[in-house]
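Appendix B. Chain record.
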Amino acid sequence: KGDIFVQLQKGSVIQTQDNMANKDTVEQFLDNNPQFAKEYYDKKVKAEVITAAFNNQVKVKEPTSYKDVSALQEAEFIFELVKEMQGTEPMEKALHKILQRIALLIQADRCSYFGCRARNGVPELSTILFDVTHNSPFNINLVNPNVEIVFPTDMGIVGWTAHSKKAQNIPDVKKDKHFSDFVDKQCKYTTKCMITAPIMNEKEPIGVIMALNKQGANEFSKSDQELFNKYVNFASVVVLLAHTASMWDIESRRSQVLLWSASKVFEELTDIERQFHKALYTVRTYIKCERYSVGLLDMTKEKEFFDEWAIKLGEQEPYKGPKTPDGREINFYKIIDYLLEDKEEIKVIPGPPADHWALVSGLPAYVAENGFICNMMNAAADEYFAFQKEAVDETGWTIKNVLSLPIVNKKEEIVGVATFFNRKDGKPFDENDEQITEALTQFLGWSTLNSDTYDKLNRTEWRKDIAQGMLMYQSTATPNDVQTILVSYKFGSGPEDCDQKEIANIPEAKTVELHEFHFSDFPLSEFELIKCGIRCFFELGVVEKFKVPAEILTRWMYTVRKGYRDITYHNWRHGFNVGQTMFTLLLTGKLKKYYSDLEAFAMVAAGFCHDIDHRGTNNLYQTKSLSPLAKLHSSSVMERHHLEYSKTLMEDENLNIFQNLQKRQFETVQHLFEVCIIATDLALYFKKRTMFQKIVESIEGIPEEKEKVNYVSNNATRKEIIMAMMMTACDLSAITKPWEVQSKVALMVAAEFWEQGDLERTVLDQQPIPMMDRNHADELPKMQCGFIDFVCSFVYKEFSRLHTEITPMFNGLNINRGEWRALADVHEAKMKAIEDEKKKLQGGDAQGELLLSCNTENDFNQQQSRAHTV
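Structure tokens predicted for this chain:
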């Protein structure tokens, strides 16, 4: 078969026998036994053989030999790649090694990596690693952001690769319709053939790898493409890992921006400028730019009429500049400038001139006019906007790239423009920066609702104060009013100079029966009732004890009277009667022993004020009609309004009869006002009656008078429960008055109820309940009996048990119930007669029924007239 010669050393040849292994067998043996091969060559190969090998010209191996990479070599490469990925080195360094490997294996002249991004909503590609060869250094191939090549995805084969999301193998680029020589001209290079592949993140490209010009051939073969795709997979792992980390950082920054801006926005609600400033300054570390500014727009939509006179007369040119989408003239009334490089600095420029560096380019006005997001990569070279090319201030800072966004509120009005300058890593702002800053500006825009709402609340509060001042002026007693009661004997002195001794014409308590439970206000005028109210405080002894100025007391009493509206029942007369009954319960009913002078003072004053500014309708009507009072107060609507009105009087130093109290005493008075006035809500009456009954039973079981007093007076809760029930007894006291008084008051109450029923029928389009329906007027006696039995009887019965001195009220109640029962019986007899006659006339005509009804009605009227005259 022939001899085989294997050259082991220079000049020595060994002849083998036919039965020895051939060359392939030897190679396989050496491959399978690397340790033996190493030992053999270390022993047999001489130094001169190695020297001769390096001195001889090395011939380039066939391209096919580069593809025969052993599994061991590839494993070592992948292991090194994984170490790069796990380390702190940037993604570009690991990707650079892959591109070097690709260039070596497929014999490409050079390789490049392009990153995909978007600006202003337009996708584009930029060079990241450029012209990588199998031995080119990393720092030469890494592209500086200032000199990167940028082109859209609809340009060139690389752009088409990103657009189509498919790998390309172009044997002759000049025959391909997508080819563009834009990059070739930039680099003075000629591209002949090309192979490209996109790196995908799910369905979106994030980069493109490109290899150019096959060495030793005119095109890349199929096997080259398979090897290229294999290493593109490695590159995808590297790029996706970096992309995921980048997206995590971006989302983290976005969440921090929103979290901190939200925190600071809600710290400051009073002013939009301070609101923006706090939010923007707090999130500055997450935005990663060198500088940003915020221009605040004037929100005035219409000029004052006198500003238009000069324009209409032709003396001034009308405004011809840009306007916001809602038609406002673009006028930046303030710029807040944040410099984040070196020493941080914040500048506020009120009324900035048009040539200010932040405005001179026209970009903020353009954004305010169109509402667009503008992302500009090379501001100095832009042809549309004239950015300042030299340093903008003494710091030497210059504009490189710009991102400008509108700040839009919830009404879709542009309230300002935020402009960010120079990304810190030198790259232009991308879509991720746009998303972060857009989230921030949207949040800032929406947060203007807080300051707007706060401003509206302030304006409402100011209007309320103005209205309240006007109201107080109209309702407060004038000096002339006060003078009708106060008389000064000194020439030239006013009401404020009078003391208690100079109060004239105040009736004596006995004269008008102020101490009696059967007191009637009918013989007295409303003016005389004011004097009687003043007398109550003197009888209590609180005027001198708490140093209440005579003028203040008189003015307060006058003002309370003016606070009551001129309505059918809940007017000043009712308010006075409640205060007088509280006064009588304390003194005549002997309940004063449980309370201090200060508490008695507050209770009587609260009685006078308890229904002030009543509108003649109850709480249910206020709720049904959705009145402002019902919206303001969720429960006890009218009672809380009366309380607020009463506290308003206390806030005026010219009306505050408690002005000389200590702070703690004054707080006690305000609390007692709340207890007394809220207690007049009958909806709360049924909650407190059981507790009151238990207190009465406990007092009855105590033998000693002193212990009884201590049992109540030493426990604030028991005192308040009795106080609340006293207010109910005072509010319903008309039911205990002599029949001549009670019958008139009952008709006034019924008339006011019927007026509310008419409103429910006409305004609310609802059928009123029988008590409010004037069509059920003939049922009034029956309803009065039911009201006495269900509500009133318990109150006065328990008070008569508590103190026998209060028994006259319970007796008067029972007498009146008998009168109402008699009228109810007459009405029931009438109705029974009508029913009997109907039965007799069953089958008769309607005329007979009508005649019967009329006759029966006449009979009833005659009986009622004989029984009582109302």
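Further analysis of this model is presented in Appendix C.
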